[in-house]
Amino acid sequence: MANRKKIGLIGAGNIGGELARLCANAELGDVVLFDIPAKENFAKGKALDLEQNSSVLGYDAKITGSSNWADLEGSDVLIITAGIPRKPGQSRDDLVAVNLPIIRDVANNAKKHCPDAFVIVISNPLDAMVYEYKRVTGCPKGKVAGMAGVLDSARFQLFLAREAGVSIKDVRAMVLGGHGDDMVPVLSMCTINGVPATHFIKADRMQAIIDRTRKGGGEIVNLMGTSAYYAPASSAVAMAEAYLGDQKRLLACAAYLEGEYGYKDLFMGVPAVIGKGGVEKIVEIPLTSEEKGMLEKSAKSVQSVVDVCKKS
Ligand code: APR
Q: Does residue 312 surpass a pLDDT of 90?
């Protein structure tokens, strides 16, 4: 089919497999599940399993496994999960030494084989990995974003919904800043169908929810021994769909800042409009002085990991 989109998934592990399932099920396009040569058969096996699933669930999508970058040529979207996930006791920043050479390898190949793709990075430490991807490829700033804000916001929204005893469908909240323990849940913009969430939730409970959100990834790592994958995959697919469908969704994502919120030459979670141009616009929302302070702390943490990358 001439008009089918092509989605390249770099990393065929836990998140990669779930990404493939979601992309195929939503018929976003044909999917290439890519992994290193040692895991090519694993990627091919997952792809075949998912193609067989199409006859049960009834979706039209070609899904292939590969370790050959040539197979990714013509990709409209690349979603990068290549790398090692956390183990209990590790912070995302602990992954930098292992995942930095991996993102560089991926960026060099993506630059060569998929120069026009909209790229969504998931590998951790997220904000530094997406920075490194842009630095190595030199791609336009709108063509690459990091997925963290949609996921962190989803976690925040779930905990708010449970505490307030309302449907998850009515909770609106955004988490900004770096994808680390000092991320910034924006309480001043958090509503339950337009009603401030603080109307439903007392201050001490709200603080507990904020703390749990910040450690939301670690909570799952401690339970499973590895990182989450269902919600991370759905979050990246929301971004991919926004791009492929020119939906102009306002999503929190790690976008390249050139003065917005007072930061320059840094990727960090901010509200951004995603449409056919990729990250089309960064929206500067008013923050309270407390939130600005938290954002500054978070930006410093991100910068310190980026500085480690720059020296390596
Ligand atoms: N190119 C392609 N794939 C690679 C490369 C590479 N250079 N290096 C490693 N991989 C693959 C691994 O072989 C593995 O199959 O990336 C895959 C990662 O899969 P998992 O180990 O299952 O990890 P996952 O849970 O999917 O998380 C991936 O996303 O959320 C982050 O912290 C998480 O950095 C981690 C990443």
A: no
Is residue 300 helix, strand or coil? helix
Q: What is the mean pLDDT of residues 132-153?
A: 98
Answer yes or no: pTM beyond 0.85.
Answer: yes
User: What distance in Å separates the CA atoms of residue 99 and residue 101, rounded to the nearest whole number?
Assistant: 6
Residue 103 contacts residue 80 (beta carbons within 8 Å): yes
Give distance in angstroms: CA of 130 to centre of ligand 1: 15
- Name every protein residue with a CB atom under 6 angstroms from any ligand 1 atom: 10-16, 34-36, 39, 81-83, 85-86, 95, 99, 102, 105-106, 122-124, 226-227, 229, 232
Q: How far is the CA of 95 from the centre of ligand 1 (A)?
A: 11
- How far is it, in rounded angstroms, from Cα 46 to Cα 16? 10
What is the per-residue pLDDT across 68-109, written as a single tens digit (0 to 9) for each?
999 999 999 999 999 999 999 988 888 999 999 999 999 999
H helical segments located in the chain: 14-25, 40-57, 96-113, 126-137, 149-164, 203-214, 216-224, 230-244, 289-311
Q: Is there a catalytic annotation at residue 179?
A: yes
What is the CA 208 to chain-centroid distance, rounded? Answer: 24
Beta-bridge partner residues of 30: 6
